[in-house]
């Protein structure tokens, strides 16, 4: 079962067809006039969701409207898809910017994992200038929480 929702409400439960790498889903009108749409609401099933850039940007701009488990899931999915080469790294960076001011400790645990993984990549394979820019980016992300 796939649960979907938006700022306009929840969609009827949709049963996914196994094995489905890609599947069109109907949200029963919950996307009409919505500023964001989230698939796998509540993170009830073990599936990664790759959003189009426009949907990911809308979610990033409305993160605080999502429950903590959905913020965690969105972040975990985006990081995993980025590592797999399915998501543009700049989209992950844009999503991370939406977490400024995050106050939930469980979301911060996931942020810590993602930022730690990115830090390893930056330090091992990128220039000192990029590393410095990453440190500045993380500082701006973390400071509002403290």
Tell me what the structure shows.
This protein folds into two domains: 1-42, no CATH class; 48-145. Helix content is 48%, strand content 5%. It contains five helices and three strands, in the order βββααααα. It has a three-stranded antiparallel sheet.
- Helix/strand-derived class? mainly alpha
Shape: globular
Q: Portion of residues in helices?
A: 40-55%
How widely separated are the two ends? 39 Å
Q: Order of helices and strands, N to C?
A: EEEHHHHH
- Stretches where pLDDT is under 50 for at least 5 consecutive residues are none
How is the biggest beta sheet arranged?
Answer: 3 strands, antiparallel
Strand content: 5-15%
Count structural domains. Answer: 2
- Count of distinct strands: 3
Number of H- or I-type helical stretches:
5
Mean pLDDT: 87
- Tell me the radius of gyration: 16 Å
Strand order of the largest sheet: 2-1-3
Question: What's the helix and strand layout?
Answer:
Layout lengths: L3 E3 L2 E2 L26 E3 L13 H9 L6 H16 L5 H9 L7 H21 L2 H15 L4
Helix pairs in contact: 1-3, 2-3, 2-4, 4-5
Q: How would you describe this structure in keywords?
A:
5% strand; globular; 5 helices; 2 domains; 146 residues
Briefly say what this structure is.
By secondary structure, the protein is mostly helical. It has 5 helices and 3 strands; from the N terminus they run E-E-E-H-H-H-H-H.
